[in-house]
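Same chain as my last thread, 293 residues:
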Amino acid sequence: MPSGASPLARPIAVVGAGFLGAPVAAALAATAGAGDPPVLATTRSGTWPNGHVPGGIELRPLDVAALSPPDIAAVLAGARALVVCYAPGKQQDRRELYVEGTRRLLAAAATLPLTRLVYTSSTSALPDRDAWLDDDCPDWPDEPRGRVQREAEELVRDTCTGHDLPWTILRLGGLYGPGRELFRLYRGAGDDGVLSGDGMQPTNLVHRDDAVQAVLAALTLAPDERGVVNVVDDDHTPRREIFARLAALAGRPPPRWERPAGPAAVGKRVGNARLKTLLRVVLRHPSHTPASP
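reply #2:
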């Protein structure tokens, strides 16, 4: 828990109870006191990921890309802290959700008695260059998906600052964990085809358990603590080695790459200093490199 942490302001609303948001809501419900209100969790469909809503959670349908700000505010009425964890569906336009949907959500949030907003973004909002990138990296990515993420971040920062609402942006690395194991994240490790490039790009991942820790810690920050926190583990093993180890664990030969391996990893390495110094998160999974078989 952060130094000088504030008590959790309840009720807490988790918008987007999916792969990350569902365990965040469950963890918040598990830490609630006897007289605390239930955690409000939303999904687009109004259904829980596995069909069974844990105790202490009130589930409501909410599609921020489709509703007006007043209608969104009605769904979230009474919330004093807001966690935003949504992700687009397979056919959903990313900008419509992350930028326009977030714009509507923030307009609704301005009418609620919020004391903290935690927004989960992605390390794709950082440029893809051969360097260590910290929490305050000012440069935008070139890739369109990443630029949408960065635009959403700027929208959160500017709107919350304009309303003097304490905010934290958690810039998550690639999420893995139960139901999204590394072999599924890196499906190419089991393919027979040739993989593009040389596989020497560093990896920037985080286990879901540690991402949940980061969200809970961000909710307890003092009101004057506002900013961006990169949420990644300590491991930046190149994709080539990760793929080879996953293939070996599956009893397969290592995948073939378009080019031979270079002498060293080349690409962005996302630093996690603020995750440890500000949020005081002790990583349960500091490395994602599979053990050799």
